[in-house]
């Protein structure tokens, strides 16, 4: 039978002929036969036996109590692997560490049957917590625990053999041991614990995979072959690492390779390895000629890395040409150089601007065209500092299999006019003097302006002496007027209705033509002004209003009287590169917002990212003859930011990049 006393399981003698009792409790006390036990057997020397069956990672800690050494009362025999390791006459230590199969027997030798405590036992287990994978040269923590071992128990002497000819000793029940492996591979570690002078050990075996960190790899790349036919190999070079899996991600195709054979000499001697990927012709034909970008993925169990490279598939460059206008812009304004290729790509393009005729290099610009469409026409904006000088452009183009060059015609830098905007400082009436407000953006220099209206012609010489300008009497403008010179010219119309002003600005090299329509009224009309209400009345045209999700613009129309006339609202939008650029008809973008006459609702998905001038034109029509009697305009500058791309990924594995 079995009963519990003081947290120990006490197992007592049953009968002489009973089989040994199999111990399953992790700890307990073993007792000699009691008087009742002795009376229940006919033998003069009753015997009780206990067997302990342990798991490989367990060991039995058996302590023979001191008072149990009275051999005159009973004989204690401990067998381990069919050998007697202790009996009553044993003079060695009374604490035994026994592994595998063990048996303890107690035989009464005297007339006393007093149920004495003979021995204490405890089953010890060794557990470890070690990561399966580790990184070379980084610390690995071995979490070691001896189950059921208390401070009052005998101290265990333990040793860890890390499997790389390194080991460490310690004495404790719970330990955290740190070790760093110096090379990759699979290592078999062994942890063993024993009591002093004991032959048996508590042992735990395991293995750990040590790998190199691929994020530290410095991968060098070389392309062998550059055409859509023939051999084309992508070669990568880096120091030896183990293990490593390669994935070449090219468009929607993945080419894989693995290195699973460990060569320690290459790692220890820092050998470089070469990995070649042959690109099949069918993939090259699918990609087509030009510059392509691909990703090399390297990974193992402890790291993941991405490296980005370029693949060029070249075709022969033919018929390189370079063209520019006869007159070039002066800084800060830009002019355009057009470079053409009949066939071939990709192309590295170098543009050299030289003074003429001494061929002094003034500027060098490098650019690239990646595919056949880009290489048909490459446009480069250039700015030159000095006026009245002559230049010539030389262009060099090359790729891996061909090259070419071209020279432009001679051109010169002269002061030029780039933009003109003409309006008036108020309503126009017949036979009443009116100020024309003419905003001119151009280079520093002298010009002459000609205005032609009705049957009159007026010549106005003027000089631009500065790039930036400050205007005190600002009109409602669709642009930032900082870079525009304001010219005020007083004129008188004698006729009413739509009146056209044709004008030009010229110097010795250039003529810039422009025109504008004005409505000349017989008498004042009810329409005085219009103002776009955008929530920021103090905002200048040069400071754009940012469009987040939705923007509501409404019109405040000022009428001085009530007459029988129709009011019409017309909203337009123009995409511009900067706040100083004029909105032109060719840059008009159709508005897709909700328009309610004097109000418009613009949402972020109605316009592509960029800068826009929103124009509102309000006109009144006579009820009887339907003629337009008056017009008024206002402008607002808005910026549509680039929208963030949101991606929802379901499934897959989480990796730290």
From TrEMBL:
Database matches in Pfam families: REJ
InterPro entries: PKD/REJ-like (IPR002859)
Keyword Signal: yes
The PKD/REJ-like domain, residue ranges: 555-656
Keywords noted in UniProt: Signal
Signal peptide location: 1-23
Keyword Cytoplasm among record annotations: no
Protein name: Self-incompatibility-linked fibrinogen-like protein-B
Organism listed in the record: Ciona intestinalis (Transparent sea squirt)
């Amino acid at each position: 039978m079995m009963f519990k006393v003081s947290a120990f399981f006490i197992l007592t003698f049953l009968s002489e002929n009973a089989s040994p009792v199999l111990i399953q409790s992790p700890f307990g006390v073993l007792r000699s036969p009691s008087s009742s036990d002795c009376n229940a057997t006919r033998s003069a020397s009753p015997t009780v036996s206990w067997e302990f069956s342990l798991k490989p990672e367990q060991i039995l800690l058996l302590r023979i109590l001191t008072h149990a050494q009275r051999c005159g009362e009973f004989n204690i025999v401990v067998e381990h692997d069919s050998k007697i390791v202790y009996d009553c006459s044993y003079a060695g230590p009374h604490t035994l560490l026994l592994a595998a199969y063990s048996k303890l027997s107690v035989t009464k030798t005297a007339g006393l049957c007093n149920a004495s405590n003979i021995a204490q036992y405890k089953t010890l287990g060794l557990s470890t917590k070690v990561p399966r994978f580790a990184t070379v040269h980084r610390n690995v923590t071995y979490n070691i625990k001896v189950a059921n071992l208390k401070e009052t128990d005998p101290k265990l002497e333990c040793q860890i053999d890390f499997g790389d000819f390194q080991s460490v000793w310690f004495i404790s029940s719970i330990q955290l041991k740190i070790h760093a492996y110096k090379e990759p591979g699979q290592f078999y570690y062994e942890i063993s614990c024993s009591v002093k002078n004991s032959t048996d050990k508590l042992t735990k075996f395991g293995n750990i995979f040590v790998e190199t960190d691929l994020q530290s790899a410095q991968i060098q790349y070389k392309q062998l072959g550059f055409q859509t036919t023939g051999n084309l190999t992508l070669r990568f070079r880096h120091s030896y690492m183990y293990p490593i899996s390669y994935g070449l991600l090219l468009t929607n195709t993945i080419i894989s390779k693995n290195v699973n054979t460990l060569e320690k000499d290459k790692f220890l001697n820092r050998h470089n390895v070469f990995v070649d990927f042959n690109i099949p012709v069918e993939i090259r034909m699918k990609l087509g000629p030009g510059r392509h970008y691909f990703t090399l993925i390297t990974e193992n169990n402890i790291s993941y890395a991405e490296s980005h490279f370029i693949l060029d598939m070249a075709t022969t460059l033919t018929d390189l040409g370079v063209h520019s206008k006869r007159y070039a812009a002066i800084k800060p304004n830009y002019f355009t150089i057009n470079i053409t290729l009949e066939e071939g790509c990709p192309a590295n393009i170098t543009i050299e601007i030289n003074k003429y005729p001494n061929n002094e290099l003034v500027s060098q610009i490098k650019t690239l065209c990646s595919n056949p469409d880009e290489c048909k026409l490459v446009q480069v904006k250039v700015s030159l500092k000095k006026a009245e000088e002559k230049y010539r452009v030389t262009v060099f183009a090359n790729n891996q299999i061909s090259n070419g060059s071209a020279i432009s015609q001679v051109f010169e830098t002269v002061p030029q006019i780039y933009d003109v905007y003409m309006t008036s400082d108020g309503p126009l009436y017949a036979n009443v003097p009116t100020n024309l407000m003419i905003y001119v953006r151009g280079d520093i220099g002298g010009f002459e302006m000609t205005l032609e209206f009705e049957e009159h012609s007026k010549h106005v010489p003027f000089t631009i002496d500065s790039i930036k300008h400050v205007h005190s009497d600002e009109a409602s403008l669709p642009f930032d007027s900082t870079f525009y010179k304001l010219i005020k010219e007083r004129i008188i119309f004698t006729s009413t209705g739509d009146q056209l002003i044709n004008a030009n600005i010229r110097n010795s090299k250039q003529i810039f033509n422009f025109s504008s329509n004005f409505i000349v009224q017989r008498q004042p009309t009810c329409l005085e002004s219009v103002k776009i209400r955008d929530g920021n009345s103090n905002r200048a045209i040069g400071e754009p209003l940012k469009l987040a999700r939705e923007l509501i613009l409404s019109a405040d129309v000022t009428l001085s009287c009530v007459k029988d006339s129709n009011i019409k609202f017309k909203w337009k939008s123009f995409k511009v590169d900067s706040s100083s650029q004029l909105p032109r008809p060719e840059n008009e973008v159709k508005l897709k917002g909700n328009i309610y006459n004097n109000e418009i609702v613009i949402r972020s998905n109605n316009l592509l990212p960029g800068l826009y001038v929103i124009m509102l034109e309000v006109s009144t029509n006579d009820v009887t003859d339907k003629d337009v009697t008056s017009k008024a305009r206002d402008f607002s500058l808005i910026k549509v930011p680039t929208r963030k791309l949101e991606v929802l990924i379901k499934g897959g594995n989480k990796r730290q990049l």
